[in-house]
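# nightly structure sweep
# worker-07 picked up a monomer target from the shared queue
# config: single-sequence mode, recycle default, output format = structure tokens
# input follows
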Amino acid sequence: MPCLWVTYRAVGALEAGGAGNTPWGLKTPGGDPKGLLERATRDIVPRSVLERRKSPYPATADHLYGKDLRARTQTLLADRSSPAFGVVDARELARLLEHPQGHFDTQLRRNGLETALYLDRWMREYGIAPE
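# output follows
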């Protein structure tokens, strides 16, 4: 479903590099990291959305996701035939699991586990074997 509040002009500005070429001072008026966005959309975006704190990356806070991620990583570690182990250090991956449950509560902290699992899936799906 298309975003109803993005106009063709806004898309054109982004395609032309508008957002990337905007000077930092214009993007962050008053030091607010969402200042330009807030000013451009204040008439159409709910106030509660405009005023909430900026999040650097959408990351789930669901502890069940972390538990599942750890279980899938343990399963991967038990399968030494995984093509991912041609590029992923199994000992380092196992070391990541030594941290207490709940340690992987941010995207950055669980990145190693997710990357190993995605890499394993991708390599198997496309029949890629390390040399």
